[in-house]
Amino acid sequence: MSKRTVFTSITPLPPGISRQTAIDFLHNHRDMIDLNPLVTDRHVISPPPHALPEEHVCTWYSITDKISYLPGNLATGAISYTAAFHDLPMGLQTHCHAPMGVDLREKWTVGGSEPGEAPEPMELGLGAPRTGLYIREDVVITCNVMMASFIKKTIKKAHGTLIEALTAKAARSKDAQLAASHSDRAQATTTHYRQHSQPPQPTEAFQYRDQAPDTTELHYGYPPEVMAPRAMRTPPHAYVPELQ
Question: Would the pTM count as exceeding 0.90?
Fold first, then answer.
């Protein structure tokens, strides 16, 4: 006997997580799949035969979970199922087709307002926070009565794991931004030091010792011996005959 279960979960986001960070995480399908601790394998596949016509544009995955039939993992096994992922501007839609007639539809959206934004109109009876951002998860489960409670419990546990993963990702992103900022400052300081520590370039009025002088410019067009001091015109040690 099948049972249809519908519920909504609201979880506030920590102040350090922006709306875009949360949306980007929801659009990362592999991270979303790995929120389920029972997942042992997942890979992209083509739309299966049971995909609805409107779901052919979705990204499809084959997912394998490890399950326990008896308490204490006395009897374990594996179960494989397919899931469609469809990105939305503010979140994500998924549709899972599992064995034994399990049909699971989920919609994840980021709601609320960031600092400086006008508060959005509140939906009555939802229990959403008046300020800040939150994750809303709308779930529709169609399955055997005996499995409904287990599936609902697993979904709620994955929702709590999502918030922890988002918080960790936001912290890593902030650390990366700080590291990049420090690196840019260090590079700018090094460039400034190099630009202001170069030796002056020689000019027309300044000559290094190892540079040959331009005799024409240094003697203003006259021969060097004319511009030389009078005492140096006669080379030293030259023989000068005595006058008789």
Answer: no
